[in-house]
Amino acid sequence: MADQLPIPPHFRPERVPDVWRVDYERRAADVAAWAARHGIGPAAEDAFRTCLLAVDCQNTFCTPGFELFVPGAPEDSRRLSEFVYRNLGRLTQVVATLDTHRAIQIFHAAFLVGADGRHPPPYTIVTVADVEGGVWRAADPQHQEHLERYVRALAQGGKYELTVWPYHAMLGGIGHALVSALEEAFFFHAIARDAGPRFEIKGDNPLTEHYSALGPEVGGSPNRALVEHLRSFDAVIVAGQAKSHCVAWTVEDLLRLAPEMAPRLSLLEDCTSPVVVSGMVDFTEQTDAAFSRFASAGVNVIRSSEPLPAPVS
To answer: 170 forms bridges with which residues in the sheet?
Structure first.
């Protein structure tokens, strides 16, 4: 089997920015012939095990017109879909994280209120001084003490200040779903390799942000089960959205909890983009600094067109 495979004929790159229903039955029927033609065997037979960690590849971030659209995400999704198809026989498993929220959470407007009784607009930055000075307070008084502790903990931990995000990744909504093109690619991989994806829910604790797939910003415990699962692979490839937040903090936490994994870790720099909202927020500088730290720690920063690590013979 060639190291890189052709892209299956069903893939339509022009459809990547759209939302549509995956025809599972047709794709499943296609897979058998495709796998036989290209000598693709079950993942259980892989001598060199490679995981694709796909971070928050959801409509809410990746599809134009959705709540927290990341500029550049459609092209990232196209390249990531093509990466999955080209490396179908080399990817042992896909681990997909899903940002998962409800209306009343600490980073949504409904949680906070100003002195005038109004909720903050999206992309408002809430500082320690704002909370201590009464610029913003918890809409529910029982959460005020937690809010005060929370913003102080962010500042002391060197985290991003509390950001009021647009309502996004709402559980049960279309924005919560995977990008259709990637859902189809992951399904095609699952049938071809007889290895279903592992889904990781994150972000449903109402009292903390949860950028990293491996733990919340403040409080809580690390997702050690996921760390151990990632440790079981010979290589872990990371992509998804957003480069400045959920991707960066996931990698940061993984290097903190399992520093020995650095040389086994590869970041697909052309399959992820930072949060940029014209005139409001731009996290490009922080993102570049984070990826420089990762490279200095021994992490591989590569492009999706580059070959995967060579299997052990």
So the answer is: 101
